[in-house]
Design goal:
TIM Barrel; Enolase-like, domain 1; alpha/beta; globular; single chain; 14 helices; 14 strands
Length: 398
């Protein structure tokens, strides 16, 4: 039987929960056979759509759907300049869709294509937040009652609302480093004694502190036994991870802002982190992430793929398949999806008791209701939550 080839590459933009999501659909010469992939760069989604439809589509029509690795490299190198969030998300949409097709052709879940599931379930963590310690405590208790055993604890998100001081009312944060450090330490002093048995806390610094301040915070948090501390330093301060490795006991997670293997080489090659947090669509899709997971396994680094609300349900399903196939799986970030998202994306996995069961449907197992998606159009608007500033008004990292 001849291998089907690509007949069309299109995009579907939708925002069922207010965050723009971009899904790529790859159609084939085989009747009824198509694949879906995640290309969601929520804050520049229309730029990704432009690359997919006007540059990748004409280059890929007619190619065999089985040539996944070769197509990935062709799409990645086709513009000569490589990587970056726009290009990588475009490539990811195609790459994930081709793996989806491969699983459907084989009649098995994608994780079975990669050697089969190596665990019976996948542990996930979700987010607890509150504007006060009491609100946060209630949020943690509610999630623990739902069965979550790994809970990320954030006080006022990543920092107090900025208001007009940031030039974008209510859309960003004001960070006063000394106050922020004290508030996070105080938060855990109040939260840790009340944690239900078996619940492990996590925290995301979100790279918003200067490296010296971030190190001070991390050293003070060591005594709380966090499951991991996320995004302690910005990628631009990568040298600081060497100091952290020498001085900290708390496991460090990093990676969601990296788009290129070259950027990750020091962290992975020197074993400077404990959990890899790459966002798969920003890294180029499933093909490069499978390779990255193998590299990390050799350095005893575990996977913790980025899984926020600005990841399409197709991307969330791809994460789960990779989780089941990776011997060095660590944890999976998971957000509670809205009812309309489950209706729009039939097959989207659901967590129960803080875990997700093995996939059983062929391919990635998630479809999309295009008519429903059209009822929630994505819009192009300025990104405002990245306007974070220090107390003196100077910009810091998002």
């Amino acid at each position: 039987m001849s291998t089907p080839s690509i007949t069309d590459v299109t995009t579907i933009a939708t925002a069922p929960s207010g965050i723009p999501l971009l899904v790529v659909r790859v159609d084939t010469t085989e009747d009824g056979l198509y694949g879906l992939g995640c290309a969601t760069f929520a804050w520049r989604w229309s730029a990704v759509r432009e690359v997919v439809e006007n540059y990748l589509r004409p280059a890929l029509i007619g190619r065999p759907v089985a040539a996944i690795r070769d197509t990935f490299h062709l799409a990645h190198r086709n513009a000569y300049w490589r990587s970056g969030p726009v290009l990588n998300n475009a490539v990811s949409g195609v790459d994930m869709a081709l793996w989806d097709i491969a699983g459907k052709r084989a009649g098995m879940p994608c994780c079975d294509l990669w050697g089969g599931a190596v665990r019976n379930s996948v542990d996930v963590y979700t987010h607890a937040n509150g504007t006060s310690v009491e609100e946060l405590r209630e949020s943690v208790a509610r999630l623990a009652a739902e069965g979550y055993r790994f809970i990320r604890c954030q006080l006022a998100g990543y920092g107090p609302p900025a208001g007009d001081a940031a030039g974008a009312t209510g859309a960003a944060s004001i960070i006063k480093p000394a106050d922020r450090i004290d508030s996070i330490v105080d938060m855990f002093e109040h939260i840790i004694p009340d944690l239900p048995d078996g619940v492990r806390p996590l925290h995301d610094v979100h790279e918003r502190l200067h490296p010296t301040d971030a190190m001070r915070l991390a050293e003070r948090l060591d005594r709380f036994g966090l499951f991991f501390l996320e995004d302690l330093f910005a990628p631009e301060a990568i040298d600081w991870f060497r100091r952290a490795r020498e001085r900290l006991q708390t496991p460090i997670a990093m990676g969601e802002l990296f788009c290129s293997p070259a950027e990750l080489n020091p962290l992975v090659g020197e074993g400077l982190i404990d959990y890899i947090r790459v966002h798969p669509s920003f890294y180029g899709g499933i093909t490069p992430c499978l390779e990255l997971a193998t590299r990390c396994e050799a350095k005893h680094i575990r996977t913790a793929w980025h899984g926020p609300g600005d990841l399409s349900p197709v991307g969330a399903a791809a994460n789960i398949h990779m989780d089941f196939a990776a011997p060095n799986f660590g944890i999976q970030e998971w957000v509670v999806r809205s009812e309309v998202e489950y209706e729009m994306f039939p097959g989207l996995p659901a967590a129960h008791d803080g875990q997700i069961d093995p996939p059983t449907a062929p391919g990635l197992g998630v479809d999309i209701d295009r008519r429903l998606a059209e009822r929630f159009p994505a819009t192009v608007e300025p990104t405002r939550w990245t306007h974070t500033r220090f107390g003196d008004g100077g910009l810091t990292y998002p």
